[in-house]
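User: What would this chain look like folded?
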Amino acid sequence: MKRHHIIFAAMLLAMPLAAQDIYKVESFTSSDLIGTARYVGMGGAMNALGADLSTIHTNPAGIGMFRRSDASATLTMNITPGAENFADIGKTRMSFDQMGFVYSYDSNSPHLKYVNFAMNYQKTKNLKNYFGIAAPLGPGLSQSWQMAQLADYYGQWDDGSGDWVSPIAHTGWNSYMIDQDANGVFLGCDANDYFMRKVQHGGIQDFDFNVSFNWDNQWYLGLTLGAYNIDWNSYLLYGENLINDADGTLHPYSMINDEKITGSGFDMKLGFIGRPIEDNPFRFGLSIATPTWYDLTGNNILTMDSPFIGPNADSDHTVSGMRTGDFDYRVTTPWTFGISLATTFENFLAIDAEYEYKDYSGASVRYSDGYNPWYDSDMYSHSHRDQGLVDEINRYMNGVSTFRVGTELRFAEGAYLRAGYNYVSKPFKDDAVLNFYTGYDNIGNNDSEGVINTTGTDYVNLGATNRLTLGLGFRGKHFYGDVAYQYQTQAADVYAFQNFDQDFTRENLLPKQSLDLERHAITLTLGYKF
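Assistant: Here's the prediction, encoded as structure tokens.
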């Protein structure tokens, strides 16, 4: 490296950032197939059949079909066969997924038969995920070239601090991973190969409160208010073997990106179930869920360990880092609409089929413009939308369709066999990228505040999700128990970083690495009816 600039090793700079992107928006919007073992065993297809606590989250009218009070709790063992023990996160992990109760009140009215009240805790998403990749790199492909592009594009802050706008470029500059030629153009390094290991853990917990009504045992209406808690953690280790221009020897470079996001949110759901023909078991369900409004706080630490050194260095490598202070922002998820159909046959067979759609065109991210406790009711009284990120959502994210079908067979008195299938379409378009240059080809020059301040370069384009489920249940006069098995598979295209051509076209020159994110889960529910 030609640059002569003295820095302190392991320098950590605290800066207020707002790191957000389309991939985190998807992560906080999508949900796993989680709930009671009966619900899971039927592939989540119970929104017209109802009378299960997990329908409180998908079709609130399902709670109106209870005619006895009920309490249950659920435990799940999640297994990720392709994972390795990394950062204390292994292949198998236990999860407490559900606990709730329904109080069913017989109104003794000629038409309003029952008024039911329910409270339920349920994990809606298990954020545990692990993957590792390794691949060769061709000429001009290296994470350092992304640092150089970010430095060229965004430059330095105009506050005289000398800090580069992009934390990735800033840390790359201070670790000597990028340099400038005689014309002031930034240059990266050549690398022979790379590896990446990433682990995520945490989850999204939902606390639902429901009131529902049963008219004539034929029409059902329910309302659910949901309160959410997010705890998301990500740890990434990335490395390259850099090529020495003089003799071709390889020198190791590594980067660690440690991210944490916490927060809360709320939403409302309205559901309806009807039996159009009084003496016919056929029924249909309709549901609508408002966006979830999340208030989130993030905190990141980025560290690079470079084989390059500055003058008067007393070490054979340079470590540079940056940490963010707590940064706050608000995410609004899409609206969700659902329709379901179900029927029963002679009290021994039940079938349910349904469709759900999430419309991402309404999703957005907002940042506060400042909070004055004398005038503002909350920190978002004066806020603005990240228009660059909204443009990326509309450009790269699909509306997501979910299909569910499930069946339950009573094969003996009080004994049930269940099976289900659950399909979720892919959330991202094939050409989706973690685009750091959102304003480059937009008329409004809308650079995303979240993207230009992010500390990670990796992204994953998730494909469609397929889930197959089986279940077994036993019912007594009061006690019941259910167990379910779930197999999930999902394709994923993983990119460790991005290198664009000089015109910042939206095609990543780095080849993708394709993975199959396979997961197994065994769910157990114990309950009591009274």
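Confidence is low (pLDDT under 50) at residues 1-17. If you want, I can go into more detail on any region.
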